[in-house]
What we know:
- The chain is an alpha+beta fold.
- The chain folds into two domains: 4-159, Fructose-1,6-Bisphosphatase, subunit A, domain 1 (Fructose-1,6-Bisphosphatase, Chain A, domain 1, 2-Layer Sandwich); 167-304, D-Maltodextrin-Binding Protein, domain 2.
- Helices cover 35% and strands 27% of the residues.
- A seven-stranded mixed β-sheet has the order 3-4-5-6-7-8-9, with helices on both faces. Strands 10-14-12 form a three-stranded antiparallel β-sheet, with helices on both faces.
- The termini are far apart.
Amino acid sequence: MLEIETLLPEIFAIFEKAGQAVLAIRESKSDLGEVVKNEDGYESVFTIADLASDQVLYEGLTALTPGVPVISEENVYDEIKKYALHDLTKGYFWIIDPIDGTNHFRKGRNSWAVLGALILDGAPVFGIVYRPAPTVHGYYAVKGKGAYKFQGSIENAEKISKEKRDFRAGIRLGFEIGYFDPARILDQFGDVPIANRTELETDIQNGFTELSAYTCCLIAEGKVDFSAFPMDKCAAGEWDVAPVALILEETGGYLRHFDNQPVKFGTPDKKVEPTIAYNDPQLFELYQRHLFASYSYENRVFIKKEP
């Protein structure tokens, strides 16, 4: 068994190096060399910065944990083929996203992160959301040891927990508008008050909301209550959700499919059916009641019912 807590300084150093590689390219390159990869029906836009981060993570984690597969959004097909004879629902493997929020990065925003999770027998036992800009900060969790928020370095990490609250005053909602019809997401809650509706409507008007993974961390911390990820325009990958699944779990939160089943990792194509994140079971019940009164869900797409 890997002693994850013992490896934390080395893991953190690898993610720090990856983040610095991305920042160095952003500062020195006017042309990010954007590429669209389309293999086996999967489309992804990435840059030379994604590839630089990918290389740092792949080499670092492979050296740190020899024999443990490293599956990345950028190498996913090569690595799946390499480990085709391995059952990744058994034993360890790393799942990483060199830059989660590449579109944010391309636009010069700081709302992107380097993500990683260590999976054991189909479930995450370590997860990290690492943000190097504008200053180093982020979240990580170790199975059975809690979730933590850090500023500057892992030595400054503080354990996080959420507070029980009364949702009758309104739900604090979060979502990433790049993948959704924002008006429809707000409509899905019917007459349930949205405590931060004005803020969300302003963000929608400005064309910006927070990264989905980071929103999940805010849910774990108790600053946001609920986030829905229909993913109409793209299928999420395991690299998008594995780190935050554990961060949520360690604070009593949830990452679930729309039938409220937990997400399993190590699937053949590394894609994830649409998910929702929340920090109280009554929120799922509330959301489900309003959502499915107005929408049907077919082939990963929500369809508004005829009146």
